[in-house]
């Protein structure tokens, strides 16, 4: 049996595009002699379709797409992922299942429903889907396939998040191969975990395993592909490329031996975290613009490292000609801010404009003079600068159809070191899941073949430049310390006592954790953040705003 | 057995305050001869504690609070709600249970875990909690109590969201009374549904039922109290007050006869939707400020109805002396805008300031002149006005410690008729779940005893006044039509075809639904919205941003 693994980029709710892509791939695979083409979890609707799943019409359109695909599915079989109505709804439970259709001879031969529904971090599957409790293998061309959906293989011995394991039931039916369709999002450490867990499954059940993941970004969630093939010893037969669409072919014989049709690179060098983050962010930016129908990005370029890195990433993702960098100096901007920004614009070849904001902040201060009379300069005047910049950038968006890129990093977003409705604005946050120390690594990586980001933007002490001689280090611990404390709190959910026990200064730890919690109201109103870590701010981290714990 | 029902207002993560309040109530009830005091679901932590529940320290602090309460719980028993570790975690499942402790003689005698975990709309319980599958009654003072938690009684015959029903197991153990502890949020139509479902339970199981709800707001979610007592025929014995803290006493004899100790008002006149919304919003505003430690609100007063209603509500909730109304006329503001706003300020007795924004928008237009040269006035200049106002208001927040109240209504929020980082700013949105037609009703209700909101603000055609002679009706259908279409789409999740079939103009319906979907990116960045309907924007409605369906 020749199996084609289709690692494709879908678009949520874009039935025409998703269906056409699936049918095209089916036709290509048939021409290449494939017996079975495997598509990813929920490829029909895109993932996550969220509350669109609550619309009966949306579910109906999914089924219509499936029927179109079925009609095109002759002389070849396919597996697609689709939300389907729960047929036992009258006995209780959610309205839907997260399903796989096994289609052959122009019709749906088997419907397999997902049993283990992730409902943590960015996942909300139990919001929509009823878990399946009965399992049957798929028989096709002399093979018996144990077909499961993503998390169904993830109930590990070490961290059993569920009380059942579908493969423990399916294995009793003596399948000779496992196929798993997935929508498994990217995080810089997730590929290794994924490989380990899938390999364990292949070994435990003594079966070859074909695993197809989605690729492409859906707003903040990035799917990295990296579909996998294992033999029945758990040895990796192939690891498909990351961050791009691929259609690969594998022959499976009756002795469970797998022969790839294209060259494979086994045991390749793992990419570094930063290499992965770089590719993930490029895909995230590209798909955000492409899928929302926009082409042109705008951002404020301060001369600092964050906006420089965002500008370089945007230029690489969208083309320099589609990036507008706006220099917005105030009276507190230092001379090198301008020259560093200008150097970057020259290195990238992107568009730029310079808009002085002094006359604007002066106008605000004059208008507010009766109210502010006699009161000292404080955060009100600091934020006026950041907010004036945002208004200028948004005016250019409204005039020319740009999308504003947010340039805040994860360290700032964590401690609330940013101005709401000021530098926290944007359509999408590029670095909101990248700690400041990682931003430096990313800058150096971007410069790996020669200086793109000016060295001065990398080496100068970070500053918001909202008052004279301001430095980030005036009010924050050094970023090495800050980022480690944040990692222990945000990613690892340690308490202040536990972090202090790791050797950090008590006052610093308490202050940082309090800053994180009191900034919830700011983060609530910030743009979606491209997720590259196992715990990003946004949908994956849901905190009370008016709460007392640690604030 | 004398049962005290404690309908109290908790604060998420404020262990000191919640624990002290519970112990004080326990002492009062003991002095009044109560045998058992019933507190609400998750009263120890507050509800919803969201991802605080993922911190081991947080769960430990919950248990410490429970131990303090247990130590104070002598010569009286109590039921409290608390998150507890899942003791069968090694066999799989979530880390926690949503539990009730039955405490007597200074110790925890029974632990009851919730089985039916709401995971729809604003609820995320399966994110944290493992559902219970085994059930045991509580024996106390000759009574056998079927103790359940909120949703455990909500698996109705008509809409069975779950595949099991805990009471069907418990009833086999021959209990003589049901107690249900809840955290059931307010929506203007939810009280009647709650009464019907609980009455059905009492009747079906032929048992008296004591039901204790939380009261008080936690950011956007408002708990309305309205705790209930039913006899074993399903007849209501008492309906406790809405939107306030109450401690009531009931004697239950061996024949299941319930005697309230305080006067009850049976079959009282139901409140209208608008009366309920009015009280809910007052509580929502009050608790948002009180629980976040702020006293003073600020808002932009346009002379229109939305900001007038928000101003009146804020003055009633916080005291007029704690409300600052800022008039921010531009060159497109009409004369009556100022006088209507001034009339309202006078009627309420709140503080006010006037800040002209013309010099500010002029400064922006001058600074952007090189970029905008030769291009016609459009939405860029319109939004400059809204954003300049927001910057002024936020500067006053930063200078004086105000919280900005957002004044957008649900109709505007739905169709994206508002300026991101402009009039869509604020710490909390007061009317974001109140349709424009309901805002008019609310205004008339506020004026029920005499004019507070100037009649002119109510009767004049709505306008954003961002260009000459602008009217909402230039770009939107009339609000009666718009709100009905929105209700069918947002609340009832009908498709465009289904709404058109109700008799609405096809082009209008398609346009409105497209506006709703393309405004997702704006709503993502708006403040939390006080939830008063069964489907509010925010946590309870989760939509893809970059999706294609209907956009």
Protein described:
- 2 copies of one chain form a homodimer.
- Chain A is an alpha/beta fold and 551 residues long.
- Chain A folds into 2 domains: 2-262, 4-Layer Sandwich (Nitrilase/N-carbamoyl-D-aminoacid amidohydrolase); 275-472, Rossmann fold (3-Layer(aba) Sandwich).
- Chain A has helices at 15-31, 56-72, 166-170, 190-205, 273-292, 305-318, 335-348, 358-367, 369-372, 379-400, 410-415, 436-446, 455-459, 472-475, 479-491, 496-501, 506-518, 520-524; strands at 2-7, 36-38, 77-85, 96-104, 107-113, 138-140, 143-149, 177-181, 209-212, 215-218, 221-224, 228-230, 236-239, 246-252, 258-260, 297-300, 323-327, 351-354, 403-406, 428-429.
- In chain A, the strands form 4 sheets. In chain A, strands 5-4-3-2-1-14-15 form a 7-stranded mixed β-sheet, with helices on one face. Chain A has a 6-stranded mixed β-sheet with strand order 6-7-8-9-12-13.
- The longest helix of chain A is centred in the last third of the chain and has 22 residues, at 379-400.
- The first copy, chain A, starts with a strand and ends in a 27-residue tail after the last helix.
- Chains A and B meet through helix 2, helix 5, helix 8, helix 9 and helix 10 of A and helix 2, helix 5, helix 8, helix 9 and helix 10 of B.
């Amino acid at each position: 049996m020749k199996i084609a693994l289709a690692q494709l980029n879908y678009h949520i709710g874009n039935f025409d595009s998703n269906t056409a892509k699936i049918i095209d791939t089916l036709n290509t695979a048939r021409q290449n002699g494939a017996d079975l083409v495997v598509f990813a979890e929920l490829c029909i609707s895109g993932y996550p379709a969220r509350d669109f799943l609550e619309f009966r019409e949306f579910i109906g359109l999914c089924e219509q797409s499936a029927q179109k695909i079925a009609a095109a599915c002759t002389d070849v079989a396919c597996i697609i992922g689709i939300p389907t109505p729960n047929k036992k709804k009258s006995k209780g439970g959610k309205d839907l299942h997260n399903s796989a259709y096994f289609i052959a001879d122009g019709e749906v031969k088997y419907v397999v429903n997902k049993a283990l529904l992730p409902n943590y971090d960015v996942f909300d599957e139990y919001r929509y889907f009823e878990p399946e409790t009965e399992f049957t293998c798929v028989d096709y061309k002399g093979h018996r396939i144990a077909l499961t959906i993503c998390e169904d293989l993830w109930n590990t011995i070490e961290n059993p998040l569920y009380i059942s394991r579908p493969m423990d039931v399916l294995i009793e039916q003596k399948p000779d191969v496992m196929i798993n369709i997935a929508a498994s999002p990217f995080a810089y450490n997730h590929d290794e975990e994924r490989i380990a867990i899938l390999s364990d499954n292949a070994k435990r059940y003594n079966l070859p395993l074909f695993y197809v993941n989605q690729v492409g970004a859906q707003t903040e969630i990035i799917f990295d592909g990296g579909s996998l093939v294992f033999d029945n010893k758990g040895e990796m037969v192939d690891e498909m490329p990351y961050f791009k669409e691929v259609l690969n072919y594998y022959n499976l014989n009756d002795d469970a031996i797998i022969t790839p049709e294209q060259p494979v690179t086994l045991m390749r060098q793992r990419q570094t975290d930063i290499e992965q983050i770089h590719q993930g962010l490029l895909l995230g930016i590209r798909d955000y613009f492409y899928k929302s129908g926009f082409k042109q990005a705008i951002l404020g370029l301060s001369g600092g490292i964050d906006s420089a890195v965002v500008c370089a990433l945007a230029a690489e993702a969208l083309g320099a000609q589609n990036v507008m960098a706006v220099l917005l100096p105030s009276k507190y901007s230092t001379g090198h801010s301008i020259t560093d920004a200008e150097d970057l614009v020259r290195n990238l070849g992107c568009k730029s404009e310079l808009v002085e904001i002094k006359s604007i902040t002066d106008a605000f201060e004059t208008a507010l003079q009766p109210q502010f009379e006699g009161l000292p300069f404080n955060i009100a005047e600091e934020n006026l600068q950041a907010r004036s910049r945002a208004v200028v950038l948004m005016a250019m968006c409204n005039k020319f159809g740009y999308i504003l890129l947010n340039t805040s990093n994860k360290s700032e977003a964590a401690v609330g070191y940013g101005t709401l409705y000021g530098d926290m604005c944007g359509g999408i946050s590029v670095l909101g899941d990248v700690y400041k120390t990682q931003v430096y690594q990313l800058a150096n990586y971007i410069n790996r073949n020669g200086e793109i980001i000016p060295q001065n933007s990398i080496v100068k002490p970070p500053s918001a430049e909202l008052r004279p001689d301001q430095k980030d280090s005036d009010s924050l611990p050094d970023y090495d310390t800050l980022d480690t404390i944040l990692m222990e709190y945000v990613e690892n959910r340690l308490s202040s006592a536990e972090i202090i026990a790791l050797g950090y200064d008590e006052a610093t730890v308490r202050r940082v954790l309090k800053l994180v919690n009191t900034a919830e109201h700011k983060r609530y109103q910030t743009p979606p953040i491209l997720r590259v870590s196992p715990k990003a701010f946004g949908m994956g981290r849901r905190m009370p705003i008016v709460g007392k714990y640690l604030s």
